[in-house]
Design brief:
Number of domains: 1
Keywords: Membrane, Transmembrane, Transmembrane helix
Helix content: over 70%
Largest sheet: none
Structural class: mainly alpha
Distance between the termini: 21 Å
Length: 120
C-alpha cells in the first residue's frame, strides 16, 4: 500500500510542478480529483486482493480479475458522472483520466509481477 501512496505523491508533485511553472493545455483543472479517485480505487482493489489471498493462494487470479473489472466499472462511472455534470474541457478531462488509468494499471501490474517473481 505504501507503494501506491508513494506513486501517487510522485504523480501529484509532477502535476503540481507542471501546473505552476508551465503552460499546460493538456492538464485539466480537476486533476487533483482524478488523482484522489485513483488513489482510493487502488487502495480498495489492493485491499480486495490482499484480503482474498490470506485464505487461499489459488484465488489470486479471480480476485485480480474482479479488482480489474471493478476498477473499470468505477472508472466508467466516474467519467460518466463528470460528463453528466458538464465539466469544462471535456476532452482534456477524459485524456487526463485515461493517461492516469493506464499509469495506475501499469503500476499495479508491475508491482504484482514483482511480488509473483519473489513468491515463485
Amino acid at each position: 500500500m505504501i507503494k501506491i501512496i508513494l506513486f501517487t505523491a510522485i504523480l501529484a508533485i509532477a502535476f503540481f510542478i507542471a501546473e505552476r511553472y508551465s503552460v499546460t493545455p493538456w492538464l485539466h483543472p480537476n486533476w487533483k480529483i482524478i488523482l484522489i479517485f485513483f488513489l482510493c480505487v487502488s487502495f480498495l482493489t489492493n485491499r480486495l486482493v490482499e484480503s482474498g489471498l490470506q485464505d487461499n493462494r489459488e484465488r489470486f487470479i479471480p480476485l485480480f480479475m474482479a479488482a480489474t473489472v471493478a476498477r473499470l466499472i468505477l472508472g466508467l462511472a466516474f467519467i460518466g458522472f463528470f460528463l453528466f455534470r458538464h465539466v469544462e474541457q471535456r476532452r482534456t478531462f477524459v485524456l487526463d483520466f485515461l493517461v492516469l488509468y493506464i499509469c495506475y494499471t501499469g503500476f499495479e501490474i508491475w508491482t504484482m509481477t514483482r511480488n509473483l517473481r519473489r513468491d515463485s
